[in-house]
Amino acid sequence: MKNIFMIMVVVVMSSIDGYAQMGVKVEVPLPDLHVNGNMQVSKDIRLGGTATTLGDPGKNGQILKSNGPDKAASWATLAIPEVPATSSGSLIAVNGNMQIAEEITYLMDTDFKFTETMIEPKIINTLNTKIIDTCNNI
């Protein structure tokens, strides 16, 4: 009787599709693994891989990056600039690198000339914003 029961279990299990969703505290899981609650990972999170090869665990300091819907996640390295504690100014990007610019911003007129004595204020329409870097970094 025990053997017949085992045969029935094997037949039923083999007829079930091998691809199914799994849920934790979820009645109807939507993705392959659907977790409703906290999750703790004690070792690697590996991306990619196949049935015979392990996925990529990433490198030290990398973060897990979403690449949008229907695209695989990937490992990415954040570009965090090393800025001395004594630096002050604005953080700007120059050729893809972040720098601190101690700057002075002013408005500069390229073609306005005073042709008469001004009694009332005049509108200057051609002002351009210019930035001077006082550290000569940019």
Concise summary:
Helices cover 10% and strands 26% of the residues. The protein has one helix spanning 2-15, and strands at residues 22-24, 33-35, 63-65, 74-76, 90-94, 97-101, 103-109, 127-133. The strands form 4 sheets. It has a two-stranded parallel sheet with strand order 1-2. It has a two-stranded antiparallel sheet with strand order 3-4.
Description of the molecule:
With 138 residues, the protein is mostly beta strands. It has a domain at 103-115 and 122-138. The protein has one helix at residues 2-15; strands at 22-24, 33-35, 63-65, 74-76, 90-94, 97-101, 103-109, 127-133. A hairpin with a 2-residue loop joins strand 5 (90-94) and strand 6 (97-101). The model has no long low-confidence stretch (mean pLDDT 74).
Topology:
Blueprint: H1 2-15, E1 22-24, E2 33-35, E3 63-65, E4 74-76, E5 90-94, E6 97-101, E7 103-109, E8 127-133
Parallel strand pairs: 1-2
Antiparallel strand pairs: 3-4, 5-6, 7-8
Structural key phrases:
single chain, 138 residues, mainly beta, two-stranded antiparallel ribbon
Radius of gyration: 32 Å
Number of strands: 8
Strand order of the largest sheet: 1-2
The CA-CA distance between the termini, in Å, is 84 Å
What's the story with the biggest beta sheet? Answer: 2 strands, parallel
The helix count comes to: 1
Q: What is the residue-averaged pLDDT? A: 74
Tell me the series of helices and strands, N- to C-terminal: HEEEEEEEE
Strand content: 25-35%
Which structural category do the helix and sheet elements fall into? mainly beta
The proportion of residues forming helix, as a percent range, comes to 10-25%
Which residue ranges are poorly predicted, with pLDDT under 50 across at least 5 consecutive positions? none
Shape: elongated
